[in-house]
Design a protein that fits this description.
Length: 127
Amino acid sequence: MTHCSGQIRYLIAIKELSEKDEYVRCVNISRHLGVSRPSVSKMLRCLVNSGYVYEDFCNSVVLTPEGEAAVDEIFSSFREVNIFFNKFLKLPKEEAREQAIKFITDFPHDTCERLKALVKRTLNKNK
């Protein structure tokens, strides 16, 4: 699956927020990403059109099965890239998170996969 950088950022935010709270609301996404509520509504409409979020997102944002699959795919790269920035480059947790998101949204998928494989090999070697 190919996602635009905005979709990736929002899907990560929805995933992170849903792990903290039962309901993910537009205002929570707005605060989490530091964007306006109209921007959130516009991107959620895009995510609905892509089949990742259910239509009725005004009360609570809920991922569709396709959205869950997209998040799982995104997080499979995000975890290892985040480990790279945090553990290997010794960046503080929040900075590593931001850099990991930027990396997976801006770099080619193949480059992310190569870094992911490198991190996995290194972690397995150190066990």
